[in-house]
Amino acid sequence: MNIWKDKNVLITGCTGFVGSWLTDSLIKKGANVVGLVRDILPHSLLYMNGAINRMNVVYGSLKDYHLIERVLVEYDIDTIFHLAAQALVGVANKSPVNTFKSNILGTWNILEACRNTKLVKKIIVASSDKAYGEHKKLPYKEDFNLQGRHPYDASKTCADILSQTYYYTYNLPINIVRCGNIYGGGDLNFNRIIPDTIRSIINGGNPVIRSDGTYIRDYIYIKDAVSAYITLAEYMDKEGMKGEAFNFGAERPITVLKLVENIIKISGKTGIKPKIINNATGEIKNQYLSCEKSRKVLKWSPKYTLDKGLAETYIWYKKYLTSGAL
Fold it and tell me: Would you say residue 326 has pLDDT above 60?
């Protein structure tokens, strides 16, 4: 049964990396997608694959509460995927206030508009593994304290706690997604390790590792991440589901150096060596997730191994970067 046929869905952050993939997937499932767009980004996958022409677009900012309320009412929104955020750690460190406004104010405006209009039946909020902050015990489980200390981490901690507040106090129909590092074609933030590494290799340069190379992360391929969002939304009507947070990742933590070496191997350009500059600041050394709850409750598990996902990702960037797009 396709529950998305003719469903009115609002996606914030629809022009972003994850938002573009999620929007395209839901349109293909027959949903009536409304996207809130702040900036026109012609290199966004949403524009490149033509999905922007198959949806309703509202131009404006999450900081505009009255605009959000209008969208919910006029488009009779049933389900919200709240993905919009300032998502770059480096930018957050340089510009914390703008990050807080985007990630915290934007979230409470969405939730407050839902509380006041009383129309929306499902709200899926994108949190992050970064919301957990730093813990001595790993992997992170959903009942761990949320204790982000650096600007981006703190913004996700706050947005996550706000979402819980609106569920527990106002009984809003909310679930929270906490993903590991999402990667795949269409991510044009080249200060992230995977797209930057691939671009360097394609251009014949040496990939740069900002840390000492020993930092450990968990990576989830974009198709698995989209599957996670949609699966969670489809499970929300089940008893006891609302208000719950779920981790999604591949559960295959890897050092940054090993990740870069894997990408080099996939590229076939084995003569290339990474350059380790070891000047990373404001980042947690080791972060990875337990997805036991998602496996048991949602029957969800990733379909892609890291190498398979990286191989598809490399092909996408090679085609994109050699087409003259950038």
Answer: no
